[in-house]
Amino acid sequence: MKYEEINQSKESLLPHEEPRSKRKINYPPWGTRAWILTGFNILVFFTSALLLIERQYSFITRPQTTWLRESTRYSPLWGTPLEKQLKKYEMQMNSTLFTPPHPSQYRDTLKPSKDVDSAWEALEWVRTFPITEQDVVAIGKDPQTAVKFPPDYGFGDNAYVAQLDIFHQLHCLNALRLIAWGQFEQDDETAKRPFSDLHWHHVAHCTEVLRENLMCSANLDVVTFNWKETQNVPFPDFNLNKKCTDAEMLIEWQEENALSAEISRGFSRPEGAREVPMEDEYYRLYGLDRVDVGHR
C-alpha cells in the first residue's frame, strides 16, 4: 500500500484552520506587557523571599523534639516537659587513647579511682517511674504481664513500672569497666596480672568512647518490668522494641567499598605533613623526650 505524504502547505491539519501567516494576533501594547512582566517578576521575588524566610524561621523555631521521635520507637515521655526541655548540643569527644589534660570525671587513668567509681555510681543509678496501660501497649508489651506499682505508692490503678533504657546501658558498660579494673588488688595500687600501662590506657579509652557515644545518642526508650519465675521483686524486661539503624547495611557497605585491613593504613607519613601533638603520657610511657616539631 502506498502512503501519500501530507503536504502542510496544501492541506490544513484541522478543518477551517486559517494559514498561520494570515492569522492576526492581537498582542497587548508594549507598555502593558512590560508592566505585566515586571509585576510577575516582583511576585516571584517576594514569593521566593517569603518561602526562604519561612524555611529559616521554621528551622529556628520548630520544636526540637523531632529527633527524639525519629530515634525512639515510642516513648511514654513524648509530649511531657522532658521532651520539650531535652535539647541536642554539639561537642567534641574527649576520648583520646592516652589520658587527655582534662579528662572527664568518668575516665580512669592507670589505676582505679574512688572518685571515678563514685561518678559512675551516680551515673548508672537506675530509677523507675509510672506509665499507663496505654503506654505499655504502645511500647509493644503486654499489660497482663507488665508490673504495676502497688496502690500504696499513690499512683492509682493505672500505673506500670518503667525506667529509662539509657541508664541500663550505662550500667552494663560500668559492669564491664569494673570487671576490667577488678584486675587490681583491693588496695587499688597493685595489678593482679602484669598488664602494661598501655593496656590500662586502652581499657580507659574504650570505656570512655562507649560512654560518650551512649550518652550522645540517648533517647526516650523505656524498659518495663515483669514478675519473673523464682523472683519476688519486679524483673526488667530487656527485650525492648527499638527503632534501629540497619547496621548490617553498614557492614555490607564497608565490605564492598572500604579498603582491606592489610592496606587501609599501610603507608607512612609523607615528608612535610602537618602533625598534631601527642599526649604527654605517650612520652612518659616510652621514656622519650618531647621534641617540638613545630606542628607544621
Automatic annotation (TrEMBL):
State any GO BP term from the record: mycotoxin biosynthetic process
Source species, domain of life: Eukaryota
InterPro entries the record matches: UstYa-like (IPR021765)
Q: Does the record's keyword annotation contain Transmembrane helix?
A: yes
- Residue ranges spanning the membrane: these are 34-53
The record's family statement is: Belongs to the ustYa family.
Q: What is this protein called?
A: Tat pathway signal sequence
Organism this protein belongs to: Xylaria grammica
